[in-house]
Amino acid sequence: MSGTIAKPDRLTCGPSRAARELDLRRGEFDLAVNLGLIRTVPDEGGGGRRVARAEIDRLRAEDGFPDALRERVATAGTNDGAKLMDVTPTRFTSLARFGLLVPVRFYLNRYRTVVWLYLAEELRQFAAEESNARLLTGRTPAEMREGLKAGLDRRPRNWRGRHIGFLLRQAGDDPWAHAAAVACLLDPADVSDVVEDPYERAHLNRCRPRLPAHGAPGSPAAELAQELMTASEPDEVAWFRADLAHTMETARRQRPAPRPAPEPAPEQVPAPEQVPAPGQVPAPTSVPEPVAAPAEDRSVPPDHTPSHGLLGWLRRRGRRPTG
């Protein structure tokens, strides 16, 4: 029938289905979403992000599909990256540790060694820049040698800096989603220090984006991955804390965190009547209203007693006692 609105599941599809229709592996699909190559929409049922059918049609209609899309999300490790740049693996690792090559993903192998992955497209671009030629051949610059000798390794921090960009892109204009994205890369103690209200912290957890999983929860691999995904350098932590505090102020103004409804006050049950003991006069249930004195007696202050008693008072009033 014309004018019929299609069901939501016909207008959008989940990530797994979208990856199949775009001829991508799930990891490639997730990376394409992070890079903004595939636009997603929020699931109205709260089940995560979905992809509109119109977006899938747009991507499938592009020139060179699917190879062109696949090439844009292709990644390389140290050995393959070194071949792409025509340098030795040692030189490649030095460039990455010094922060000149920014990883886009990482995983832990069976020996719990961190394997960093880089966008192949970015590696080719770096090698093609004439200004980088001196970094690819010849003697390593002194500054780089000194930093590497001191144990410098900017790969974890560079990954975090890149990943927060991915998360903020998906958060859009929602301040709670923005704050939750920043909070997920901070140590819980730092989050509690910045966000003292427990209801706000609980709401942040509900908005928390999913970070890449590495091993079973609580396993050594998962703990190592969590360490890599948590801001650790003082200036980095300070930046995240300041951003979290600023975004929380906006979130509170726009949409305060939900709180439990206040409990109703308990009903006051009247006390049971006390039955007086035999011979006991029951106490009055209320204090009687004071009775006003007659008009002729109101000239005497209530707290003043005549010095000569009733007889003197009558004389002063011009009366004589009878009898």
From TrEMBL:
| Annotated region described as Disordered, given as residue ranges | 250-323
**UniProt feature, compositional bias: Pro residues:** 257-287
Biased region (Basic residues) positions are: 314-323
- Stored Pfam families: DUF6397
Full protein name: Uncharacterized protein
Origin organism is Streptomyces swartbergensis
